[in-house]
Amino acid sequence: MKYYQVAAAILVHDHHILCMQRPQGKYKYMDYKYEFPGGKVEAGESIEDALMRELREELNIDVPINASHHYMTLDYAYPDFSITLHSFLVPVASRTFDMCEHIDYRWCLPKDLRSLDWALADDPIIHRLMNDASLVSTGT
User: Fold this and answer.
1) Nearest residue to 122 (alpha-carbon basis) of 90, 83, 92, 95
2) HEC string of 53-94?
């Protein structure tokens, strides 16, 4: 089974979180699922550098990522591959970006995240975000 290190950005603007919808792809169980922007860490790349690269590729934005943004790391096994998913909570000053690889997006309050059909690996992150007092108490 293939294994990947993956980095994902939980981009937050005005208490809303950016949720990106995947296109149809190689694995049917991943088709059209929502996810946080990001992707695979390449050989010789730090997790933070990989995430900054992925944000440039997927959204055409330059966002500094550092260890202080780390939110949580988890392991997940899909039927065809397994991942270690490193997520980073990153405030952004603007909702402006270019949608280069995804087919749709939503800016959701934490309480509304479950209204979307998410990739299964993201479930623990969604659960924590929905119960994170620093996020929940500020959004209405």
Assistant:
1) 83
2) HHHHHHHCCCCCCCHHHEEEEEEEECCCEEEEEEEEEEECCC
Nearest-angstrom CA–CA distance, 48 and 133: 25
Residue carrying structure tokens 């979307």? 116
The CATH number assigned to the domain holding 123 equals 3.90.79.10
Contact 63, 11 (CB under 8 A): yes
Residue 55's closest CA among 25, 85, 20, 26? Answer: 20
Overall pTM > 0.85: yes
Query: How many independent structural domains does the chain possess?
Result: 1
- The predicted-structure confidence for 45-67, as pLDDT tens digits, reads as follows 999 999 999 999 999 999 999 99
Could you give the CA distance from residue 122 to residue 87 in angstroms, rounded to a whole number? 9
Residue 137, classified by CB atoms within 10 Å of its CB into exposed (0-12), middle (13-18) or buried (19+), is: exposed
| Residue among 97, 85, 98 nearest 128 (CA) | 85
Residue 61: domain span:
2-136
